[in-house]
């Protein structure tokens, strides 16, 4: 779990640098600071189980088993990328590992996940769906419709809300009048809980319980995990809606990687040397991914319209 969290952070720090060097175009939404939700929530899932993701989806993909080489190539717009270089950051999907894909439309992953869970139930396929979304998504109709249908049909789905306190530049305090997003599940008769999303073990524990319920035919669960994105909403965000002190506080006190590392060292499961070895291993994997992406070809003009559906 520690390795995966470190890999996610390194991937995003690397793509940030490549963006600054002009090697990646468009925009991207980084999940640095939120690594524990992605990794912890995917631990109880098998390869056959599915996830749906959001515009901030690099971490979810890596946690579900999608490889950084193909992801890096996709971000650099190369034909070896998961969408042959035509989708970019917000459209990474990898059906081989049950990653049904990221989605740039806020809350659109919820009905897709609910549909996949309905398929699993109707065809008796036995897989569970875990659907990631942000706190802002819970103000969309798609969230409410999906929860209602999943509840009345007892679908095998886990609704996993990453509450990072902001939706773009809107603070959650200005956007909803309730204390906990989890309370919204109660309205649909769905067991719901609020957890610390920066404590990876707490995330695993809550998701394990929810996945087991789903697998046993007991229906959906809503998990609200508190976390924080260290960077702005996207590349063009000056972060005027929050203070630097608030950011510093989360970085210093609630860094999910530092917290888990300290815990493992305290319990004599990890040594500083082993941690440094993990850092080196992550760096090697990342260097290989960048090299692979940079040496890959851009899609040719002849394939401009291939695999494009809109
Ligand atoms: C339907 C729709 N409305 C608005 C947008 C613009 N938009 C993109 S991300 C975002 C905020 C989403 O916030 P949240 O769901 O909390 O996710 P977070 O960015 O915090 O991870 C908005 C409003 C969009 N992409 N789709």
Structural description of this entry:
- This protein is an alpha/beta fold and 310 residues long.
- Helices cover 44% and strands 10% of the residues.
- It contains twelve helices and seven strands.
- The protein has helices at 2-20, 35-42, 58-64, 68-75, 109-122, 141-152, 172-175, 183-186, 200-215, 244-253, 256-266, 272-295, and strands at residues 50-52, 129-134, 157-163, 166-167, 170-171, 192-196, 221-226.
- The strands form two sheets. The chain has a five-stranded parallel sheet, with helices on both faces.
- The longest helix is centred in the C-terminal third of the chain and has 24 residues, at 272-295.
- The protein is globular.
- The model has no long low-confidence stretch (mean pLDDT 97).
- The protein binds thiamine diphosphate.
Q: Would you summarize the structure shown here?
A:
The protein is an alpha/beta fold. The chain is built from twelve helices and seven strands.
Features:
44% helix; two-stranded antiparallel sheet; five-stranded parallel β-sheet; alpha/beta; binds thiamine diphosphate; globular
Low-pLDDT parts are none
> Mean of residue pLDDT?
97
Question: What coarse outline follows from CA principal-axis ratios?
Answer: globular
Largest sheet: 5 strands, parallel
Q: What is the rounded distance between the termini? A: 38 Å
- Structural class determined from secondary elements: alpha/beta
> What portion of residues belong to β-strands?
5-15%
Query: Helix and strand succession?
Result: HHEHHHEHEEEHHEHEHHH
Q: What topology, given as strand order, has the largest sheet?
A: 1-2-3-7-6
> How many strand elements?
7
Tell me the helix content.
40-55%
The radius of gyration is 19 Å
